[in-house]
Amino acid sequence: MRNAGFRRFVGANLISATGSAMAPLALAYSVIDAGGGAGSLGLVLATNTVPTIVFLLAGGLLADRLSRSRMLFLGNLLAALAQGALAVTVAAGHATTASIAVCGFLSGTATSLTVPAAQGAVAQIVPAEQLQRANALLRLPGNAVKVLGPVAGGVVVAASGPAWALAWDALTFAVAAVLLLGLRLAAPVAVGGVAADLRAGWTGFWSRTWLWTYTAAGTVLVAAWLAGFQLLGPLVAAREYAGARDWGLIQAGFAAGLLAGTLVCLRWKPYRLLTVAVVTSGGLALPLATMGAGLPLAVVLVAALLAGIGLDIAIVAWTTAFQQHVPQHEQGRMSAFNGVGERLAIPLGYLVTALAAHSWADETVLLACAGLVAAAVVLNLCVPDVYRVNRLEQQAG
User: Fold this and answer.
1) Biggest CA-to-CA distance, the chain
2) pLDDT recorded at residue 41
3) Where are the alpha helices (DSSP H) in the chain?
4) Same fold across 4-131+145-183 and 200-391
5) What digits encode the pLDDT tens for the residues 195-217?
6) CA–CA separation, 188 vs 20, rounded Å?
7) How does pLDDT run across 57-75, given as a tens digit for each residue?
8) DSSP string, 195-254
9) What is the pLDDT of residues 309-335, one digit of tens each?
């Protein structure tokens, strides 16, 4: 935190997180107030997700050719304009499913610009020996906001409507854009044309076995987690537990685990970074298995807490390994290839689960999702390169 650039980066992330935590609830009620139902909300969510898949490679390519601080500025500015326009139309009573979807598409495009640039920006700002602590500190405010933000968003939406929450989200993006522009990070040196850089990026991605196997395993793991926890979790909670109340407790337990995992990463610096990332990500199977088996709520809460702890440790360990083992000038493209794989899991997981739910009970599908998470972890641990991507001690000061 003595690094002025890192303080600016953390401040931008914290400010933006306060708005982003309220946005999903505000977006849902904007659709409802516009007369839409589940189909309309699904369309809006899809238009937000699709550009993050389609344009992420372009964002990664640009992040390896342009100043990453400029990329972060433009991405946050575009998100501010999209959310601001949505807030104005909602406040004026002119919002429709189509207009909300257009704003969602622009927000998703903004995400495709900022995600690859942010990965490389941290490695430019922070010395190599401080990367893990920096990654943990970056996640700390976001995880804390995840616990309180939805509650605050619910109060704001209930008291004054979704427009005010959306306006706050737009303002936080604008402030973050200004802060990030002040980083003034140097642009990586581009040595070839766009097509050549893209081919070189794919060659670099495929040549790193640990990178593409982790991405493949992550695609399966994320699909199983989202399908089981986000899609089937509320349905099983409504039928087997006390509905929304218990589901809220389970989500709160998971969020508390994320926060606890961040605190662990501030103190624990494992040597086998990638191995730790793979193993701890397997904790996501626990709440799926306990809910699928119909175990008591207390057991599910403990499982959700452990899953959150494991996931945050996995994210910090993986990010640190990536930043230490991928050269700076390739990090945008490598991050984009990894991100595309994991984002493809979102529609894939929901589609497969929807089809499976017609043939199997929800509890059976939950157990199957837990099995997929465990299988992805075990298969990834069979890759020899996983044990070679370790902390680069020689870089320590």
Assistant:
1) 60
2) 63
3) 4-33, 38-54, 56-63, 68-92, 97-125, 131-160, 162-181, 194-207, 209-225, 233-240, 244-267, 273-281, 285-292, 297-325, 331-343, 345-356, 362-381
4) yes
5) 777 788 788 889 999 999 999 99
6) 29
7) 888 888 888 888 888 999 9
8) HHHHHHHHHHHHH-HHHHHHHHHHHHHHHHHIIIIIIIHHHHHHHHS-THHHHHHHHHHH
9) 999 999 999 999 998 998 888 888 888
Predicted confidence band of residue 396 (pLDDT cuts 50, 70, 90): very low
Q: What's the CA dihedral at 378, 382, 384, 385 to 10 degrees?
A: -40
- Given its phi and psi angles, is residue 392 left (phi above 0), alpha (psi -120 to 50 degrees) or beta? beta
What is the CATH number that goes with domain 200-391? Answer: 1.20.1250.20
Tokens of residue 313, six digits: 């440790």
Q: Count the neighbouring beta carbons within 10 Å of the beta carbon of residue 20.
A: 21
* Integer Cα distance of 103 and 98 in angstroms: 9
Q: Which residue has the tokens 């395993």?
A: 217
| 4-131+145-183 CATH, one of 1.10.3210.10, 1.10.287.70, 1.20.1250.20, 3.40.50.12780 | 1.20.1250.20
Nearest Cα to Cα of residue 8 among 186, 262, 184, 267: 184
Q: What tens digit of pLDDT does each residue of 331-342 get?
A: 888 888 888 877
Q: Kindly state the percentage of the chain with pLDDT values over 70.
A: 91
Is 203 buried (19+), middle (13-18) or exposed (0-12) by CB count in 10 A? exposed
